[in-house]
Design a protein that fits this description.
homodimer; DNA-binding
Chain lengths: ~210, ~210
DNA sequence: GCGCTAATTGACCGGTCGGCCAGTTTATTG
DNA sequence: CAATAAACTGGCCGACCGGTCAATTAGCGC
């Protein structure tokens, strides 16, 4: 045959194929959620036949689960690193934790979105897995309370919850509320939030209303 | 009469029919989002044929839009009422606003969920509509800052954003994080959040870190 | 009563869904 | 160089998707 030989017909590489399928599925799930993604789309985007996806992953559900695992792995790795490296208890520790968490979410919007989909679909996978992280964080807060660094009339879990919620939802909300009049950049918001939050956590000087 | 006669074959009531379709659609959209709801389900749940839904609403999209409008109407009514009734600027005003907002979300979890779906689907309907409310709220904060009630080194919009985000996401997150070790009730969390938040908003006494 | 409009139905459309299966092609390996 | 397993393909399946349409039925003014 003339010029257009197929440059070695098909250099097979199952690992790479698997990876590309996984990636395509991940991107689509992040964008549209589980229900609105078709196997055909995943096949098309990864340049592979639908059958091959079933060969590698078995089902759409398995692919979805695999995507959640990938996202959670990213998330958990970051959080564990941050929680473990801390040795002493002081006010800056929490501040740095919040900044780190905030930055992670900013760098990984796809994780935020995938988690949101998963939660709305009443998936329990994430809730089961991150409770360990919350427990670790709450323990740190409690230490700081006992050391007199933070006020001790607050449930430590609620401190964690507040900052996790605020950071996460800031990014989840960012796209659609982005045009709110006078809203600032990510950094501006983080500054303001930290100022309120950290000052509100200071031990109170008795005579507060 | 012998119990099970059909009580006049079909007592037509188009308004009631419309209402039932609307309600069934709303409930299903809240539960599963737009993509995962089938017209056939809506028909079945409202005890009506699929064709009749098209007769009354035209299309699935129209039904979806109608659901969003209904949810937003509930939401906006509550918010407007709260923002309008305020006449003077003081610290308790914001506190009461937060409590009211929190209570509304607690009473209307379906609104929270529908908004979440809508946002994830990158719908701009809500963002366009609630910016007015945010502007009003931010103006109130600014007044309080100018009156020396709140610290003035914070962007008022970020104050609104923080409390809206936290309240909303508390309920959005509530179901899946409900089992976090040591997490408290809605009221406990609101108390703790308000304590941190309101104290953090107090004017700072110069020498703060 | 009569006729018109609107409510309501069931059958049906083309298209897409996730999944399956019977093959073909490639790499490995003995 | 066979033989075997795995990677990969195209075609097909029944189920379901949102939407349409012609036909029936009920309400309502005259």
């Amino acid at each position: 045959m003339p010029a257009d030989q197929k440059t070695s017909p098909t250099p097979r590489d199952p690992d790479e194929t698997r990876r590309r399928i996984q990636q395509a599925a991940f991107d689509l799930f992040v964008e549209k959620g589980f229900a609105d993604v078709a196997m055909r789309e995943i096949a098309e985007r990864s340049g592979v036949t639908k059958s091959l996806i079933h060969h590698h992953f078995g089902s759409k559900d398995a692919l979805w689960k695999s995507s959640k695992e990938a996202a959670f792995e990213l998330y958990a790795e970051n959080q564990r690193k941050d929680l473990m490296q801390a040795t002493s208890s002081n006010s800056d520790l929490l501040r740095r934790g919040v900044i780190n968490y905030f930055q992670f979410l900013k760098d990984h919007p796809e994780v935020v979105r995938l988690f949101s989909w998963s939660h709305l679909e009443r998936d329990e996978y994430l809730g089961e897995n991150d409770s360990e992280l919350v427990r670790l964080g709450a323990a740190r807060i409690r230490e700081a309370q006992e050391a007199g660094i933070f006020r001790d009339d607050i449930n430590p879990v609620h401190v964690i919850t507040t900052f996790v919620i605020t950071c996460t939802h800031w990014f989840a909300a960012h796209s659609h509320h982005g045009q709110w009049d006078g809203i600032g950049s990510d950094e501006d918001f983080l500054d303001d939030f930290l100022n309120i939050f950290m000052d509100g956590l200071k031990p109170q000087t008795a005579g507060s209303a």
